[in-house]
Amino acid sequence: MDEKQIARNIKRIRQAKKMSLARLAKLCGLTKGYVSKIENSDKAPPFSTLSKIANALDTDISLLLADESEAPENLNLCIIKKNERKEVVTRGTLYGLHYEALAHKKIGKNMEPYVILPVFREKGVFSHEGEEFIYVLKGPYEFSYDGKKYLLNEGDSAYFDSIVPHNGRSLGKKKAKILAVIYSYKRQ
C-alpha cells in the first residue's frame, strides 16, 4: 500500500467536497495542523484516524486506501457500463428476487438504483426507512402497498414512502423487470 497515495486521496476527496481543512479537522475532532500534516505526509495516519476522516468526508474508508488506478477520477460522477453491473445480495435475495446494482461505484450516495427481476409469487413484505421509486421496464407487475394491490404495466411507475409494507410480483409468462431507486435518509 502506498501511504503517500492515502494522503493524496484524503486531500482530493476533501477538495472535491469543497471542504476546508478547518472543517474536516472539526468534524474529525483533530487540529487543523494535524490534518494538514496528514495530507502532506509520506506516511498514513493510524487506522482509527483514517476511520474518523472517512466518516467526516462521508465516504468509505476503502476509497481512502485505494491505489491511484482504483480511485474514481471524479467523485461526483459514477458511470457503470452494462457489463460492469454488479449482482448484489439484499434481504430481497432471500425471497428469490434478483438485484443488479446500477451505481455501486458511487461513494457517499443517498440513493441506491437497482434493476430487479421479481419472482412470480409474493414471498416477503418489505418495510424500510426512506422513499422508493419503481419504474416498470417490462411487465406486467403486481405491486402491493399497505395491503392494496396495483397492476403496473410497462412504462408505469410508483413513488412511495418505503416504511409502509410493500412487495410485488411478476405476472404473465416472463419475469417483470423493474428499475427501483431506494432513497435512505442520512443519519446525522
Explain what the structure shows.
The two termini are about 30 Å apart. With about 190 residues, the chain is α+β, with helices and mostly antiparallel strands. It contains five helices and nine strands, in the order αααααβββββββββ. α2 crosses α3 (about 30-40) and α2 packs across α4. It has helices spanning about 5-15, 20-30, 30-40, 45-55, 60-65, and strands spanning about 85-90, 100, 110-115, 130-140, 140-145, 150, 155-160, 165-170, 175-185.
How many angstroms does the end-to-end distance come to? Answer: 32 Å
List low-confidence stretches.
none
CATH class of the largest domain: Mainly Beta
Q: Biggest sheet, open or closed, and with what strands and sense?
A: 6 strands, antiparallel
Order of helices and strands: HHHHHEEEEEEEEE
Percentage of residues in helical conformation: 10-25%
Question: What is the overall number of helices?
Answer: 5
Helix- and strand-based class? alpha+beta
**Radius of gyration (Å):** 21 Å
Seen as an oligomer or otherwise, the chain set is single chain
Anisotropy-based shape: elongated
Strand order, main sheet: write it out. Answer: 1-2-3-9-4-7
What count of structural domains? 2
Mean pLDDT: 85
CATH superfamily of the largest domain: Jelly Rolls
How much strand content do the residues show? 25-35%
